[in-house]
Write a structure and sequence with these properties.
single chain; alpha+beta; four-stranded antiparallel sheet; rod-shaped
């Protein structure tokens, strides 16, 4: 066999490249269809917002004022505060006592005031958290937490 003919004969290259491209397209299509069927791409928009909150405890009134300091604007109905009444209760930010409704948004400067209900309840040493939940309630994240001063 002539060496020159070996380098110029490319009759088998075209079918091999065609098969490789068809396999690659099939794999990519299977991955895309599989991700839609398994809803792997559905929760990509449910990423937790980035926000900073400040906690100001008032031991005289047994309340805490939580203020959004900086970060993303968040829908009020996506936020809860946990750690109240000995750590067992959760307060929604759209609770009538907070003054926010479900259509409101929480942005820098927005504050809520929560009283630790029940007689004799104090904030002493409790960890209070601001928790975000996604629209479909599949994801949640603690955006900020604070431990109350011990009294």
């Amino acid at each position: 066999m002539d060496i020159k003919e070996l380098f110029t004969d490319d009759s088998a290259v075209s079918p091999v490249i065609g098969v490789i491209l068809m396999v690659a397209i099939t794999v990519i299509l299977a991955a895309v269809i599989g991700s839609f069927v398994l809803n792997l791409g559905g929760s990509l928009n449910d990423t937790a917002p980035q926000a900073s909150f400040d906690f100001d405890y008032d031991t005289d009134t047994n309340s805490v004022t939580i203020t959004h300091q900086s970060g993303d604007t968040i829908k009020a109905d996506r936020l809860n505060t946990t750690g109240l009444d000995g750590g067992s209760n959760t307060t929604a930010w759209t609770n009538p006592a907070t003054g926010l409704s479900s259509g409101d948004t929480v942005s820098a400067g927005t504050s809520i005031n929560i009283t630790n209900g029940g007689s004799g309840n104090t904030w002493s040493g409790e960890t209070v958290r601001v928790v975000w939940e996604s629209e479909n309630n599949e994801n949640s994240a603690t955006l900020s937490s604070s431990t109350a001063p011990t009294v």
